[in-house]
Fold each of these.
Amino acid sequence: MGIPGLWLVTYQTRQASRVTAATAYRCVYDDADPWTSFAQLEIPRGISCKRTSSGRTSTSLAWRLDCGAPTLVTTGKIVFDNAQHYSGDVEITGSFLEYPVRDSIHVDGRRIAACTSPSD
């Protein structure tokens, strides 16, 4: 898995014919949970989700989340090509407010520095 430090994470989201990009910085510490640090599987409040499958190796994380009614299914996998870089893809399918959802997110994370304090 990745090493502790400050990570720059880039997300490229494809929704129908629209593509958007966003970046975020995340500090990862020695004892951090890899599911929330790298796969970022923090479930938003008010949404009932259950991790129905997951797999972890020394270089990858894979998962499936089934979320509430209406049903949304999220599947994803990230792979570390070295201790300072990972990339992967997340697919979200189902329906929300009676509209079909089929989104894909490409994620790319790169360690860029050490974190200096727990408040980073």
Amino acid sequence: MLLVDAANVIGSRPNGWWRDRSGAARRFVESARDAVVAGRLDPPVVVVLEGRARDGAAESTADGVEVIHAHGIGDDTIAALAADACDPSAHPAVVVTADRELAGRVRRAGGDVVGPTWLLDRLA
């Protein structure tokens, strides 16, 4: 399972996303779905949205991508999902983030972490 800290990944590029957070989230989710359909990403992909970005994509599952709305702090939602997905008999969860604190929480739970560039290269 690939878990995406959408705020962190979207915020890693200074392309004006802050002027339209919901639009940036919508475009990001569409790009993730396109990448799964094209075979550049393996499903399942879980995109966690928080704050105003939640207005850009409804909670749903389509084309191998699930959108989850964090109802509190997004990092807490991602860390909990990663911990739940880290079954020793399966592949660990992989979280996409550059947030050091979140990365540490994920690794302590048995998950792996990759940076935003790893994902953005696959979305292009």
